[in-house]
Amino acid sequence: LVPGSGLRIRNLRVGYGPVQALRGVSLEAPSGSVVAVLGANGAGKSTLLRAVSGTLRFHRGAVTAGEIEYAGRPLSRLSAAAVVARGVTQVPEGRRVFTRMTVAENLRAGALGGRGRKETAAARRRVLELFPVLAERAGQRAGLLSGGEQQMLAIGRALMARPSVLLLDEPTLGLAPLMAARIADTVREINAQGTTVLLVEQNAAMALSLASHAYVLEVGEVVMSGPADELAASDEVRRRYLGEI
Ligand code: ATP
User: Fold this and answer.
1) Helix (H, G, I), strand (E, B) or coil at 122
2) Residue nearest to atom 16 of ligand 1 (CA)
3) Is the ipTM of this complex over 0.90?
4) pLDDT over 70 percentage in the chain
5) Is pLDDT at 25 greater than 90 in this prediction?
6) For residue 110, what is the enclosing H or E element?
7) Which portions of this protein are annotated as coiled-coil regions (predicted)?
């Protein structure tokens, strides 16, 4: 891991008008890592990803203080498109695929404009190797896919931009356990191929099994952080997020 080469968030404050959603959050995802963000509904997890991806403004939110850096350069003032061009891509919560478009069209929409055909073809090959079902369904409307397949498509579409950092918002939400486990395996595989992953998950057990480090958010603040195995062993985390004890 090269110091300073990953994603770095310092003292981030975000508001939606008068609502303070993040109150000074600091977090690091070193290059090549999987870092998990846990927390109850409304803790600010999605807000954190939106701030990084530059999509906050689509939700009427704004960064009011702090810094977001990737590879030593600031991201905080960039448009969503510019953030993607820098190598950071978000898979939004709720697997928002274009339901009336085909699977192939959805993937094409994720490719960066201005990239060569060869690069796009290579990105597509990688996505279809990760998710062979998307090749089988290439000509089908995305709205006809199952929930799990739509999640695969949402991840695949994000990978078409060949990101160095993937921001994943609740990728297993609402999926049956078997499908959730498959998504988890793919996240592991994507990371093994060299992509840094910042993972927001309600399934704390799964997130902690994937991540090297984790952060727990409560009402806009980091209340706990550390190596994932240490958090998984902590009584507090086991009681509050793993449903044990
Ligand atoms: P969830 O899992 O429910 O999405 P979360 O941890 O991702 O929860 P956020 O969605 O980031 O939490 O929300 C953090 C806080 O910001 C909450 O108090 C929420 O009500 C508020 N919030 C989120 N989006 C908006 C918005 N567009 N306008 C106003 N307030 C918002």
Assistant:
1) helix
2) 21
3) yes
4) 96
5) yes
6) helix 103-110
7) none
